Amino acid sequence: MSKHLRSRYPFTTLFLFISAALMIFPFAWMLLSAFKTPADVYNYPPKWIPSSFKFTNFAEVFKKIPFIRFYANSIFVSVVQTVLQIWISAMGAFAFAKLDFPLKKKLFAFMQSSLFVPEIVTIIPLFLLAAIAGLVDTYTGLIVAELNCAFTTLLLLSFFQTIPNELIDAAKVDGCGYFRVFLKVILPNSKTAIGTASLFAFLTHWRSYMWPLIITNDVKMRTLPIGLKYLVTETGTEYQVLMAASLMAIVPVLVVYMFMEKEFVQSITLTGLKT
């Protein structure tokens, strides 16, 4: 923030600094706690800076749980879910935004209504269907049931509607069918929206807990959010080890955000410019 803006909007600047500090505080505490000794963790009053940086906390994570397996499961499931969800949502958004077909309004209303159904309501029917289909303890069961495409479809739909119809008409004149129009016109002009939708989808799938907990019984099929729970025992919790595991768990999220940051910021800018 420039000096001119800080002097012109002092209260807004103060509010933003306080908000940023509140958001950074949990992450800073987790980062420092990952290197603390057990004595530092339970020290009162709380100590911010560890008395000695203990890097062995990270090694303890791998000794206590099959962390690499949990990590690989989460990365594979989240990436596949994100790719499939964005692909399905993009095709649906293109159809609703640019095509005319029977029952279009009713189908659109049905898709919108799915956003108002709590996830907990669908858990039991989904599990029964997955069990009948033999998808318990399978990657297919983990992936397919959580393809929540309604939100990303609406997000992409609002952007696809801003793409001029003249571009589509020109592509049709050149002999492109609907699928080629989708690949050659819609997708290349929607990188910002797709990047933002991908970020939201990946974050949602990465932190998913309820469905992976229900659909998996085998420890080898567990994802990272469930795997971290194994570090919490009835006899007590080594919080320094749990913080070390949590710190490693957020690395993929940071990597995805770094790649999608430009698109995310551009989408917010474009949204703000709309009238």
CATH architecture: Orthogonal Bundle
By CATH's scheme, which homologous superfamily applies? Answer: MetI-like
Gyration radius over CA = 23 Å
Uncertain residue ranges: none
Record field, number of beta strands: 0
Count of individual domains: 1
Percent helix range:
over 70%
Report how far the terminal alpha carbons are from each other.
25 Å
Structural class: mainly alpha
Order of helices and strands: HHHHHHHHHHHHHHHH
Regarding CATH, which class? Mainly Alpha
Largest sheet: none
**The CATH topology:** MetI-like fold
Strand content: under 5%
Number of helices: 16
Shape: globular
- What's the mean pLDDT score? 85
Itemize the secondary structure elements and their pairings.
Elements: H1 3-8, H2 10-33, H3 38-41, H4 56-64, H5 67-98, H6 104-113, H7 119-132, H8 139-144, H9 149-160, H10 165-173, H11 178-186, H12 191-206, H13 210-215, H14 224-227, H15 239-249, H16 251-273
Task: State the gist of this model.
With 275 residues, the protein is mostly helical. It has 16 helices and no strands.
Describe what you observe in this structure.
It is a single chain. The protein is an all-alpha fold. The protein has one domain (60-273): MetI-like fold (Orthogonal Bundle), CATH 1.10.3720. 71% of the residues lie in helices and 0% in strands. Helix 5 (67-98) packs across helix 9, helix 9 (149-160) runs antiparallel to helix 12 (191-206) and helix 12 (191-206) packs across helix 16 (251-273). The longest helix is centred in the N-terminal third of the chain and has 32 residues, at 67-98. It is globular and about 70 Å long. The mean pLDDT is 85.
